[in-house]
Amino acid sequence: MKTVQMTLDDDLVKEVDLLAKELNTTRSALTRAALRSAIEDIRTKRLEEKHRAGYKRHPETKEEFGAWHNEQQ
């Protein structure tokens, strides 16, 4: 683990400290969890955008999923 220095708004630090206390955790642990969550959200959004772009370039055809239509019902 590495120690890093960050500059945060006073209001944000207060909120983090209140939430950390409420969750019985530390400021560092809460911040690590929040950063991991934010990174995962960004990765998911990027993948979704790649999928949308791919379907724009190569739209699905009627035949592509037609065989599964009856299975869905």
Brief characterization of the structure:
The chain is an all-alpha fold and 73 residues long. The chain is 73% helix and 0% strand.
Notes on the protein architecture:
- The chain has 73 residues and is mainly alpha-helical.
- It has a domain at 10-57.
- The chain is 73% helix and 0% strand.
- It has helices at residues 10-22, 27-57, 62-66, 69-72.
- Helix 1 packs across helix 2.
- The chain is elongated and about 55 Å long.
- The N and C termini lie far apart (51 Å).
End-to-end Cα distance, whole Å, is: 51 Å
Q: pLDDT below 50 for ≥5 consecutive residues: which ranges? A: none
Order of helices and strands: HHHH
Structure classification: mainly alpha
Contiguous helical run count = 4
- How would a textbook summarize the main sheet? none
Oligomeric grouping of the chains: single chain
**What is the helical fraction, as a range of percent?**
over 70%
Shape: elongated
> How many E-type strands?
0
> What is the arithmetic mean of pLDDT?
91
How much beta, percentage-wise?
under 5%
For the CA atoms, what is the radius of gyration? 22 Å
Describe the structure using short key phrases:
single chain; 73 residues; mainly alpha; 4 helices; 73% helix; 0% strand; elongated
